[in-house]
Amino acid sequence: MTSLRVNLLKWLIAPLLIINLLGAALTYWLAWTPAQTAFDQSLADTGWAIVPRLSEVNGEIKINLPQKEEQILRIDHFNIVYFVVRNSAGEILAGDPDFPVLPFPAKVDTPETYDASMRGEPIRIIGLTHAIGNKNVFIGVAETLRKRNNIRSVIVLSLLLLEGLLTAVTVGIVWFAITRGLFPLKKMQTDLSLRKRDDLSPMPIEQVALELHPLVSAMNNLLHKAEVGAINQQNFLANVAHQLRTPLAGLKLQIEWLAQRHQADADTTYSTDLMLSSTNRMIRQTNQLLALARAEPSNFIKTRLEPLSLDKLVEESIQHFIQESDKKQIDLGFDLSHTVVMGDRFLMRDLIDNLIDNAIRYSPEFGRVTVSCVQRDGFGVLSVEDSGPGIAASERELIFNRFYRLNDKVTGSGLGLAIVRDIATDHNATIVLNNGEGGLGTVFKVQIPKA
Taking every annotated instance into account, which residue ranges of this chain make up the domain Histidine kinase (predicted)? Predict the structure, then answer.
């Protein structure tokens, strides 16, 4: 997918780089043109220095240029300087005989520039036409381009360094500005990531940038729809589970009556046992669906919390689980101390039932399950230890997901621990998993704030 950051960088940095390049070209032209003009003016001054040495004698043009003065004209620490003086017939009066032959400038006393080559090296020439009496004289002064090329290299190198620095600063500023500009989106992402899975409350639109208001409004609208859908789903789940409990209970009674009526018939007894087992599973799953709907954190009302005796709630469940554990010859033990917590009676019963039922289901025959509760450090701690296969560290978070099961061979819906997690969330309780004694089995500890 296309990155918003990349698109912003592309549409901001590319035009800025083009503008920088155009600015560099203009800066080069503004720096080099005056330098070139200054060099040309220096050559023209050399040509003008020759003019006073020209005179007309008996109708002929003569030049009085002693050798020392000629040497002075040619002095330059970087370039080689050439010059020539020609009469109107093109005859050389002074200077270098191999000086390039150029046309006389059309205007008198108006220097013109030429580019040429002399002795295998490019040169820059200033040509000047000067009138002596009624005769014209051509004065040409040239120099090699060493000094000009050196100055040009300095200008280009300085511009490259300057443009490189400006480009780096520009890219840095744009990157920083885009990062700061995208920060509200990053913050929104972080806020959504930190939300609990059941938190469908609207996002505060007043705390986001004005440009993000349409996006936040659309997300809030979506969250509202999801919240309504979740509530409707939970209500439907609770209603269906509630409506199923009564007919299932009646069906169970009829099957039990039928089993007693025909207990002498082996085939009928076998069939009624199967029907009763299936009915019990259906009743358990219906009860779990109802517990799941009741425990949903988004539906929980904190005012339902009241002081509860945790040990008494466990005692109320003992008889049922003794019967279940006897079927697998499991040693079910209880170590209960008086423990008072703040809780919802129905939900705490569901939590206790699911933890103990889960321990019995996953413990092997002739295994051991120990249930205890104790008051400790401001918490009521409910502990359920089994002698089952244990839970790998990589799966200790997954087991609380709905319909996740560790072993498909063990009967169950995969909702028990999901219900336990939701109830713990409702009560601001924490669940801690540890290995059992000797590294065998699993210990579930639920720490519930005390009354």
Answer: 239-451
